[in-house]
Design goal:
about 130 residues, alpha/beta, Rossmann fold, five-stranded parallel β-sheet, about 45% helix
Amino acid sequence: MRIFLDANILFTAAHNPNGKAAFVIELGAAGHFMLFTSAYAREEAFRNLSSKYPAFVPQLEKLLEQITITPVNPSSPFPPDLAEKDEAIFQAAVTCRATHLLTVDIKHFGPFMNSPENSYSIIIQSVAEFLESL
């Protein structure tokens, strides 16, 4: 499996090192699947963590050592009704050939969650849904 992590997953994993998001990264680091994110998601996670919980920035840096940063191919497809702000996130998931995109952004990704037929075969899930499916 190839797992793409949205910025909110990176933020959550860094802020709650004993939580489910951090556990997913731990599983990936142990070789159970491959982990990816984009520079855009990484920077968003850093920006949000720095402004809300600056003491956890070193934890994010440590977590990112386990995750491959994938480029965004602007010609990659994205669901037509996806919010513009999330197009680059989805395109990065397509670029790295992700099987899963993990996010907590129900507002924008909600209509595509657990519907790979509507998201170019990528399974978009919350961390809890992903872990339940293992």
